[in-house]
Specification:
211 residues, 0% strand
């Protein structure tokens, strides 16, 4: 594919976004955190911000966006360790459109880089970029209460976990975010890290002091 032709690139992005959207529409309705909006809005937006800032080449920018679209499609098959399944789904779709082995392998690798429990650290700069984009939304307070409670719903319904109150979950989630999640690229560290901590603090305070 000619990645230097903006018309072709846009056409392909729209086609692949539509296919990812159609797949994500069939996710379990209990997935209120790892939902279509997470992939097609938040992670995609994070990729756009970072690729523009770092002036990532056209090919890698395109493939990172595709990885954002498909990175959570593995949830269609299972909740835990779903990244390899998402990589397989993306591969099948890209093969249907005759993408090269090199491009498919790149997308697969980027999806696998989002597996925070099996890959403690990203293995490349582009891995850092997609990992940061995957948690970009944690730095945005707007709508985060709903996203956080959506994660609680997933844990209760799918994993069978229980909390005495929403406040207990929000506090536990804050500790998880602080201890387990971090940004890797210089841009995300400088622009999103403090905001992420602020979002966690604000949400705890909101539940401690309900209006």
């Amino acid at each position: 594919m000619n990645y230097d032709d903006p018309i072709i690139v846009q056409q392909q992005l729209e086609m692949l976004r539509l296919q990812a959207s159609q797949l994500l529409d069939t996710l379990s309705p209990e997935l209120k955190y790892h939902d279509k909006e997470h992939s097609l809005k938040w992670v995609y937006e994070g990729v756009c911000i970072l690729t523009e800032h770092f002036q990532v080449p056209a090919r890698e920018t395109f493939l990172l966006k595709v990885a954002a679209y498909f990175h959570d499609t593995g949830f269609l098959e299972q909740y835990d360790n779903n990244e390899p399944l998402g990589a397989n789904i993306a591969e099948r779709v890209l093969k249907q459109h005759n993408y090269s082995t090199e491009d498919i392998d790149f997308v697969r690798e980027m999806i696998l880089e989002t597996a925070i429990f099996t890959r403690k650290e990203p293995s490349s700069f582009y891995g850092q970029l997609i990992r940061d984009a995957d948690i970009y939304h944690l730095s945005v307070f707007e709508g985060y209460e709903d996203r956080c409670l959506g994660l609680m719903n997933e844990q209760v319904v799918i994993k069978g976990r229980e909390w005495a109150s929403k406040l207990d979950f929000v506090k536990e989630n804050k500790e998880f975010v602080i201890s387990m999640l971090k940004y890797h690229t210089d841009y995300a560290k400088e622009n999103w890290s403090d905001k992420m901590l602020n979002v966690m603090d604000r949400l705890v305070l909101q539940f401690e002091n309900p209006q």
